[in-house]
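## Example pair
The file below holds two records. Each record gives the amino-acid sequence first, followed by its structure token line.
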Amino acid sequence: MTRRFYPAVLERGPKRTFGVWFPDFPDCVAGGTSQEETLERAQTELARAIYTLAEQDTPLPDPTPMEKIEIPKGCDFIAFIAIGVEPPDVSERVNVYLPRQLIERADKRAAGLGMNRSSFFGLAVSSTLARFDLKANPGLDSAIAIARLFPGKKGLRPAKAATGKRSTKS
């Protein structure tokens, strides 16, 4: 899913505080002692609200156009803002039957990479799919494609070429 932007209302609260609320998510509010802190908390709360809906298999609401937002009486309005959020790709539990020795090898490799079994299987499937994608896009170096999928993971960097330099084909 692509990034979505939801409108929010930034308002003044009591005693030099600020608040943000989202018309499309009535229970999603955030507050702070500075505008920056409040906006940061608002982004976190919006992400949490969207993740909760995704876990419940509830479709996300369409963002309300800002011109249709009604400011309630008593609101010390400062500004309309739009906060962007990436809808999550919720994990799904699956049962897979594999030979015991293969699972042991996978667990050993996962531990060596500082990963758990589920993360390693996700990496293995993503890597395999990336290799299949290479057939459609042969100019893409598979090691670089995989490293891009999992930045910062040890052992997932492009292999060293015979010259001792890392391959940087793209």
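Second record, same layout:
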Amino acid sequence: MTVAGTTDAAVPPRPTGTGAGRLLVAVYGVLALAASARGLYQVGTKLHEAPVAYLLSLVAGLVYVVATYALARDLRPLAWCAVVFEMVGVLVVGTLSTVDVGDFPDETVWSRFGAGYGYVPLVLPFVGLWWLRRTGRPGPAVDAPPPSAPPAVG
């Protein structure tokens, strides 16, 4: 108990897939579907043309699937890993595909920082990390009593 007579109950972090997080999960879900379908098609039909690029598209799709699942189910450690991996991937592949075009004869999801997807792959991991950090902090309890004034002295 505190001096004011209220208890110091720990407020759990907010779930990642609720509220505005539903929109984030939806965007991740759309990218998961698009990138996975693209990667599977490319690997299944023309892997010999650009194996690195097509395998990277498939990896990106799998990362988006994992991130979608982790964010929707509030699996924070898995979500952090997936979103950080995504951010590193889009930055490294985006840089390499811009600087050394010869290694990427065809587009990947993360090529040129996701230009083929409206740069959503570049912005999304930063939004995802912000959301994980924001919802990971305990917020004020909704049903907590308002703080009362300290007792009068004297």
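Notes on the second record: The chain has one domain: 21-134. The helical segments are 21-46, 51-72, 76-99, 120-136.
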